[in-house]
From TrEMBL:
Organism: Micromonospora sagamiensis
InterPro entries for this protein: DUF5319
Name of the featured protein: DUF5319 domain-containing protein
Domain of life, source organism: Bacteria
Pfam families: DUF5319 (PF17252)
Length: 155
């Protein structure tokens, strides 16, 4: 008997041999590959880096995000909702995820691939505009109360 148990073609079988780190593409070389028209990450090399103005906008968004989280998280707001320009769906981002996405944009010059959150509770998310208005309202209230203290005579 040739080959024996654990041998293939006269060669001993070795555990783990031929194992791939990544899954094998079942459509590799198939002209009907359903993913053939998807974006190739190698195409991103042609993207221009952020301009100074764009970079400054992202830095300002990061600073605003810190303020919004400090004001809104204590009252139960988990993050922000953004209307996606690509898919026209609302995307819900918790504070850390949004911060990570903005930092990634700063470092790489391109946004991360995103997917909608699984079954988020919209009651726990607000828009950028709402967060900005809330922060402005808190600022105005604190400024007005500070002015009232300086206008009142001291005894």
């Amino acid at each position: 008997m040739t080959g024996g148990l654990g041998q293939a073609g006269g060669r001993a079988w070795v555990y783990g041999e031929g194992v791939h780190d990544e899954p094998i593409d079942p459509f590799n070389g198939d002209p009907a590959d359903p993913a053939a028209d998807l974006h190739d990450p190698g195409d991103d090399a042609a993207l221009e880096p952020l301009t100074d103005v764009e970079r400054q906008d992202v830095l300002e968004d990061l600073a605003d995000l810190e303020i919004y989280q400090a004001l809104l998280a204590p009252i139960g707001v988990r993050g922000l909702v953004i209307e996606c320009e690509d898919c026209h769906e609302p995307h819900y981002f918790d504070w850390d995820l949004l911060r990570g996405n903005l930092r990634h944009l700063l470092s790489s010059g391109r946004p991360r691939v995103h997917e909608p959150a699984y079954d988020p509770d919209p009651d726990h998310y607000v828009t950028w505009d709402y967060a900005r208005g809330y922060a402005d309202g808190v600022h105005d209230t604190l400024t007005e109360s500070g002015e009232d203290d300086t206008d009142s005579p001291s005894a």
